[in-house]
Amino acid sequence: MARIGIQLMMLKEHIADEGVLPVLQRVRQTGFQVVEVSQIPMTEQNVAAMEEARESLGIEVAAISAKTSAPAGSEDLTLQDHFDLHVEHARRLGTTMIRIGMMPLGAMASQEDFDAFAHEADEYARRLAEEGISLSYHNHHVEFAKLAGVTLLDQLRQKAPHLRYEIDCHWVQRGGRDPERTLADFTGVLDLVHLKDFRIVLPPAAALAGAAAGDRTAFGDFWARDIVQFAEVGQGTLDWKPVIDQGIASGARHLLIEQDQTYGRDIFDALAMSREHLVSLGYESLITG
Q: Which of 36, 50, 52, 65 lies 20 to 30 Å from 26 when distance is taken between CA atoms?
């Protein structure tokens, strides 16, 4: 059965201030049991606390995160330098899934650089599969850019045949594609889905007043950058029931609520709003197990 949970990236500042276990206790109190781990330092202390949360709170880890490589001098864990440690963490936390959150920025520089990343990712996916672990790639909107007339996402599927996918519905929409159709296109290679809504907001009064007075600077900045927001599930424009149903039909094992910004709203209140909407659509059993 597919499960609905949350992305821990949203709580990274809370974890930095309070520690893993107290934050996961609040996650449990908010009504969630499943988490995906991203942007949380995988120190021994944090990994041990996640292990304890599995035992004492019933928290299930859907997936952990990895980078293929990092710039020289970086302290980030990478599959290049810490392959065995990623496997160890996955096994300690009871997950068989690792996900890449984004390609290295250098992979966008040229066709040759992108091809090198695709080859590298495919090789790690092949090696992890030998350990019983799948490697998924998480999209943003940039993967819908084209090189030689083919989107980066389509090229990745062609050039990294061992790689699986985590489709982020907000970034698909922002990239100009339809989330439901995209999930259908990934049937058979889909492990994870990000439930992130897409909201269009009206200009603030100050920007409109400035434009009326002849200065369109603030309005232009808003129009170019801020008119699209990340939203709580159900508070944006996406029609979630057909999207979620298609994600499950396409094979997703976990669907994770994620909201990159909350625009002043407390993150736990935002999570509660998303949960309430998903329950109203009939998905409570996927949240509670």
A: 65
Confidence band (pLDDT; 50, 70, 90) for 75? confident
Q: Using CA atoms, how far apart are residues 89 and 28, in angstroms rounded to an integer?
A: 22
CB 247 within 8 A of CB 193: yes
Percent of the chain scored above 90 by pLDDT? 97
DSSP letter for each residue of 53-71:
HHHHH--EEEEEEEBS---
Has residue 31 got a pLDDT over 90? yes
Decide if 128 contacts 84 (C-beta within 8 A). Answer: no
pTM exceeds 0.90: yes
Tokens representing 228 are: 């699209």
d(CA 187, CA 190): 6
Instruction: Tell me how many degrees the CA angle 8-12-14 measures, rounded to the nearest 5.
Output: 110
pLDDT, mean of residues 36-40:
98
Fold of 3-196+233-288: TIM Barrel (3.20.20)
Q: Are 238 and 173 in contact (CB under 8 A)?
A: yes
Q: How far is CA 246 from CA 152, 167, 241, in A?
A: 23, 12, 8
Supply 131's token pair. 């350990």
Contact 198, 236 (CB under 8 A): yes
